[in-house]
Amino acid sequence: MDSWGTIITGVLALIGVGLGTWATYKRGKQSDKVTATVSREANAITWSQQLLDRLENVEKEVEKLRTDLNKVTRTFSTAINFIERLMLWAIDGCKGPMPVVPRTLIEHLDPGLVDEHQRQQSHPKA
């Protein structure tokens, strides 16, 4: 019986080792799943933050473009108004002083032409 006891003990030991290995493997698989899930979540958070940062930059750029567009629109409207006043002045036979160039347009015009216009305004022809 001594040998049977040794065999039974050995078989029980093998079963115990097998069960322990299987349990460790299952825990490891579960741990791998948790690690993979946490990693995916961390990547998603990082990606989301990068996306939010990019969106913030795009919003800033859009706001800057809106500001620039508003300035161009105002300048364009001023230019059209000035051209209309010039046309009306010409249609009226160029009587009276030529319409004054709006200050907001001066920076966009040839400085020599602006100087000549201002000279003519201060010394009109009879």
Task: Tell me what you see in this structure.
- The chain is an all-alpha fold and 126 residues long.
- The protein has one domain (2-122).
- The chain is built from three helices and no strands.
- The longest helix is centred in the middle third of the chain and has 90 residues, at 2-91.
- The N and C termini lie far apart (141 Å).
Write the layout of secondary structure elements.
Elements: H1 2-91, H2 103-106, H3 111-122
Give helix % range. over 70%
- Largest sheet features: none
Cα(first) to Cα(last) distance is 141 Å
As residue ranges, the low-confidence spans are none
Count every helix, treating DSSP H or I runs of 4 or more residues as helices.
3
Average predicted local confidence, pLDDT: 82
Task: Compute the number of structural domains.
Answer: 1
Order of helices and strands: HHH
Instruction: Bin the strand percentage.
Output: under 5%
* Class by alpha and beta content: mainly alpha
* Computed CA radius of gyration, to the nearest angstrom: 43 Å
Silhouette: rod-shaped
Instruction: Please report the total strand number as a whole number.
Output: 0
